[in-house]
Write a structure and sequence with these properties.
single chain, alpha+beta, 4-stranded antiparallel β-sheet, 3-stranded antiparallel β-sheet, 2 helices, 9 strands, 14% helix
Length: 118
Amino acid sequence: MKFALVDGIRQEARTGVLGTCPGCGSPMTAKCGSKRLHHWAHASTVVCDRWWEAETEWHRAWKNLFPAEWQEIRQVAIDSEIHIADVKTASGIVVELQHSAITLQERGKRCANPTLAG
């Protein structure tokens, strides 16, 4: 993830900083090495969004075309499942960026899963 909450404020990963997941509230560790994009990782093996995939430079570059306050917005589906929208505009439009192949069935689930709040 690009953002975690540090003292209640959304922040990007920085070396030596601990945060919490804006999706599930679990502890997050900043990963700031030289081989991957700087990102936050759950301190445990918790995966709070079952649609989560490792973020590539392609994915991050597309997200960065939008304002930071629109990126990685928590969504709660009617079935209480948590999802983190790649982008949610001020008018409520959700944009999911997908570079790798997914099945038509999975695409249908993602498009049909309504949310209550975000």
